[in-house]
Amino acid sequence: MPKTIIEKIWNEHVVDQQEGAPAILAIDLHLVHEVTSPQAFTGLRARGLKVRRPDRTVATADHSIPTTPRNLPIADEMAAAQVKQLEANCAEFGVPLHGWESPNQGIVHVIGPELGLTQPGATIVCGDSHTATHGAFGALAFGIGTSEVEMVLATQCLLQRKPKTYLVRVDGTLRPGVSAKDIILALIARIGVGGGTGHVFEYAGSAIRDLSMEERMTICNMSIEGGARAGLVAPDETTFAYLKGRPHAPQGADWDAAVARWRTLTSDDGATYDKEIVIDADTLEPMVTYGTNPGMGLPISGTIPNPADESDPAAARALTRALEYMDLRAGDSIIGRPVNTVFIGSCTNGRISDLRLAANVLKGQTIAKGVRVMVVPGSADVKRQAEREGLDKIFRDAGADWREAGCSMCIAMNGDQLAPGEYAISTSNRNFEGRQGKGGRTFLASPLTAAATALTGVIADPRTLPGMSR
Amino acid sequence: MAAPRVGTFTTGLVPLPAENVDTDQIVPARYLKVIDKAGLADALFHDWRFEADGSKKSPPFVIDEPRYAGHGILVAGDNFGGGSSREHAPWALGAFGIKAILATSFADIFKSNALKNGILPIILPAELHGTLMQIAKDDLAATVTIELATATLTTPDGTAHQFPIDAFSQKMLLDGLDELDYIRTQGEKILAHETSHPGTINTLQPNAPR
To answer: Given this model, what pLDDT does residue A470 score?
Structure first.
């Protein structure tokens, strides 16, 4: 029977399947960070257990650390204690740690791929819902809770029900000024934040094949915003070219054998999915969210919807509440809405290609008066590369703030945050109430749209920029 | 840390008629800097409950209304618990005294995390859900009984309704069994799988310099 790549990876990792019980699923890579792991290590200690496979486990600090210069101590006592606890736990249990001052530090979903640890066909988990990012390599990658972090530390396995499959086919070619972020925001706007619940997305079609690895990561990253725990892209030459020579990728004869195996990781002709959707890339515009969940997004030329036009009373209620929180008026155009802050970074759009896109827009320009622009590289490696290319100088000369690597204002745990009532345009993944600071209001968009907005101080269409090219 | 055990309980309802309540609302991220599970009851729905100076909002958010004090079942809108994987969300709900949540659907990770902490995410058909939401608002004395062994929810008028629950989770919670212990009973199979699937990922040893 023809199989999808999702079923192939699943089958390969089932250790045991008892009647009526979930499968015991083997996990190839476990990523650990300071926020969702301390209680799991405490649990191990209470049970007198070890970490079963330190060689399949890797840790970093990203969520609660400051993005100020690394020679300064962590001022927030609770964050400092959490980072210290991670260091102590990793030392005690033999888990390799790329600590907050390490040259390999970064957002967990940025460093996995960078180091070549994220590999096709693998099962990858982390106590973080954006673990779906690693699906860009044709891995089955998903977020887990802290109880599950403890289970994986102890057994390198998890209890899982086989997920349903959802084909997202994106055909055609993106227009200039439209990028990967706009594909995923358009998908979520169409299916809603619960549309993928219980499913794993497979992203396919010519527009996905044309994307770089970093663009594919942007798309897979936000699978969870569409309700799917995981999303993936079958590996191809783009995947192998990205991985080759990375520190933890196989080398020599091992590399050749691995690539031969990875080439079999495609969905068979005739494989069926539980759900399917087709998106036409040619008709996509840059997307911006206007509400308080990532499904509340619209093409940038659009106007803010009216609750009175909603046939479903629950949806009308949710929209009314969202517009109230955002202090936006139905019928107004989204272009031209003023912002206080521009945030460029996160595991969605904090990679070198994202920074290059933004720098290209800001080069030789000055950001709008009174607007704060924060550029936060996704990892220490991204930061070094950007500095080699002089991007830091471009950002600084334009008036932007160039920071150290971390999750920063995407989750606003570390002091990088909005003041109540402030608006941000953000390249991150969530626009929930208070996500970027209590009372803060978020417009989600691509790095190009965010950079264009930085120049004008109001939401701007990147397609109007001079010399717009992909 | 003993595994949670759930049997039969009878308690009042609290109405939360909002759709897509995400985990950032259930526990805002700045409360995730803890290294244990204690003290999260005040973090629950924090920004909906408290002013900037830490005082409770006036009028209070629904879970703080004195008339709902002690009610252990939250009746929420569709797609409850979306967003982040933080298990702090069910920890905070449990610390506050919530035993079950009734909704028409739940986000996947939240549902899994809730069950591991003995909080029942109960999916109801829209009509019954609407009825119970109305009762939660109108009849403060009304109670609902949930019996996990038979997966039934008995409404205030005495009608019993079957609710869906994964049979495995049901058994684990009824018997107070631990999922990690369950996995560990399969140690030989885990070892056999590891041996036959050596893989190419090794976090300890890079194969090439950066």
So the answer is: 42
Decide: helix, strand or coil at residue A299.
strand
Q: For residues A173 and A282, is the Cβ–Cβ distance under 8 A?
A: yes
Q: Which of A267, A285, A310, A279 is nearest to A191 (CA)?
A: A279
Query: For B18-35, what is each residue's pLDDT tens digit?
Result: 999 999 999 999 999 999
**Number of cross-chain residue pairs from A and B with Cβ atoms under 8 Å apart:** 223
In this prediction the pTM is: 0.98
3-state helix, strand, coil in chain A (%, to 5): 40, 20, 45
Closest CA to B72 of B49, B96, B56, B91: B96
Q: What is the ipTM of this complex?
A: 0.97
Q: How far is B24 from chain A (nearest CA, A)?
A: 7
Q: Given CB atoms, is A408 within the 8 Å cutoff of chain B?
A: no
Q: Which structural domains are found in chain B, ordered by start?
A: 8-196 (3.20.19.10)
**From CA A65, how far away is CA A108, in angstroms rounded?**
13
From A403's Cα to the closest Cα of chain B, the distance in A is 20
Residues 87-146 of A with CB under 8 A from B: 96, 103-104, 115-117, 119, 122, 127-129, 143-146
Q: Which of A175, A210, A177, A218 is nearest to A352 (CA)?
A: A218
Domain that holds residue A211: 5-275
> What pLDDT is stored for residue A34 in this prediction?
97
Q: How far apart are CA B98 and CA B119, in angstroms?
A: 7
Q: Do A227 and B82 touch (CB under 8 A)?
A: yes
Distance from the first to the final alpha carbon of chain B:
42
Burial code of B5-15, b = ≥16 C-beta within 10 A, e = fewer?
Answer: ebeebebbbbb
Contact A159 B20 (CB under 8 A): no
Identify whether residues A47 and A194 lie together within a single domain.
yes
Q: Is A469 domain-assigned?
A: no
Using an 8 Å CB-CB cutoff, list chain A residues near B33: 35, 64, 76, 78-79, 81-82, 413
User: Nearest-CA distance from A118 to chain B in Å?
Assistant: 8
| Residue A294, domain CATH | 3.30.499.10
